Amino acid sequence: MTKILILGAHGKIARVATRLLLEKNDEELTLYLRNAPRLASLHGNDRIKIIEGDVLDEPVLEAAMQGQDVVYANLSGDMEKQARTIVRAMDKAGMRRLIFISSMGIYDEVPGEQYGKVLDPYRRSAAVIEASDLDYTIIRPAWLSDTDEISYGTTIKGEEFANPHADVSRKSVADLIVKLITTKGQHVRESLGVNAR
Ligand SMILES: NC(=O)c1ccc[n+]([C@@H]2O[C@H](COP(=O)([O-])OP(=O)(O)OC[C@H]3O[C@@H](n4cnc5c(N)ncnc54)[C@H](OP(=O)(O)O)[C@@H]3O)[C@@H](O)[C@H]2O)c1
Fold it and tell me: Fewer Cβ in 10 A, N or C end of the chain?
């Protein structure tokens, strides 16, 4: 059974992905987050383990990685430092598969738009991951919405971002994450734009 470590598990996309994984599949989930009592409602589910931790706390992160198959990182903040910490901890733990949420615009792939410094943490963290030897998939969602629908397309690095001015639902991004987790070898060492249809 696949074991998944979700970093930043109280993030909005992460909570939708957790719900979809629990509904549809049989993976074991380790939910890693700060302020863990926020997920107290999930206590008692035998497919879920909850670890309170900051991703920048490397010893705690390394310990959480033991025995896991996939890391799914759903973070914000100092993402360059977070990415470096995750890559180091995965190397030490002998892990390979990483799914990392980033943002539309990091490669200036949206015609006519340059998002500037606000995307620096996303650009720099993606560069750290792309320079690693991990089996990564970077996910670059368009502007996000909480609409209850699954409807999206993807583009690969080097392509123009499709339909960049329409919001894509977090549920759509979560659906893609579930597919990447449950189908081995999909989009390995790729960076995918995720757009609304
Ligand atoms: N808004 C948009 O339209 C848009 C578009 C594209 C991409 N994005 C980006 O996509 C990412 C995921 O989106 P989302 O809606 O799921 O974001 P979110 O709800 O803000 O989730 C990010 C999570 O990262 C956690 N985090 C930050 N630093 C951490 C650390 N050092 N250790 C552990 N956890 C940490 C936060 O934890 P706490 O809850 O403890 O603070 C938060 O739960 C975000 O970076 C977002 O900015 C957003």
Answer: N
